[in-house]
Write a structure and sequence with these properties.
mainly alpha; MetI-like_sf; MetI-like fold; transport; 216 residues; transmembrane helix; 0% strand
């Protein structure tokens, strides 16, 4: 049986849901981690070697595990959190564990690009460490952060398609079930085409937004 348009639309909606919720929860996890990596590193605002080393090591561990292995490895945790290991909701859990540390690194890199002179100027005005972070460093790094989140979202789109390998739903599940297992080449090309359009559109939007912020 060939796939129909309703199935493609449903798969697209599931992919968008997976990416949206995963990005939200990953940002909640990754942004504070990224900030903590910056402020606790040697010579920075709240230098703390033990905290930095622990965070750095934990993030490196999660980033070193391929996503397809992570999908399987945390199935018990996924079942504990959402009550099942298949479906769109279940796919969000490993996606968050995959993207959270990745976003933390991207945020760290973006914040470290800020000119040290900005921090020195803020300190000379008597700003507290957290005022420096939220009123000086983050606004100064906003353009870079937009590009960082664009990259992270593109990565989540690819990972959400991979989640279809274990019944995660979305376009990846559709491509595997019909395009691969039933040799439906048309469905395979359609799903790949939709993913390409999503990535291209998102990257263009991110580039334009970052350029506008940079000009201000």
């Amino acid at each position: 049986m060939l796939v129909n348009s309703e199935q493609i639309i449903q798969a697209l909606i599931e992919t968008l849901q997976m990416v949206a919720f995963s990005l939200l929860f990953s940002a909640v996890l990754g942004v504070p981690l990224g900030i903590a990596l910056v402020v606790t590193r040697k010579g920075h605002l709240l230098e703390n070697a033990p905290v930095f080393n622990v965070l750095n090591s934990v993030i490196n561990v999660f980033r070193s595990v391929p996503f397809i292995i992570l999908l399987v490895a945390i199935i018990p945790l996924t079942r504990l959190i959402v009550g099942t290991s298949i479906g769109t909701a279940a796919a969000v859990v490993p996606l968050v564990f995959y993207a959270g540390p990745y976003i933390a690194r991207l945020v760290e890199n973006s914040l470290l690009e800020v000119d040290p002179g900005v921090i020195e100027a803020a300190e000379s005005m008597g700003a507290t460490p957290w005022q420096i972070v939220f009123k000086f460093i983050l606004p100064e790094a906003m353009s870079s952060l937009i590009l960082a989140f664009t990259i992270a979202t593109v990565g989540l789109i690819g990972a959400s398609a991979m989640a279809g390998a274990i019944g995660g739903g979305g376009l990846g599940d559709l491509a595997i079930t019909y395009g691969y297992q039933r040799f439906d080449t048309q469905t395979m090309f359609i799903t790949v085409g939709i993913l390409i359009v999503m990535v291209q559109g998102l990257q263009s939007l991110g580039n334009i937004s970052a350029k506008k912020i940079r000009r201000r």
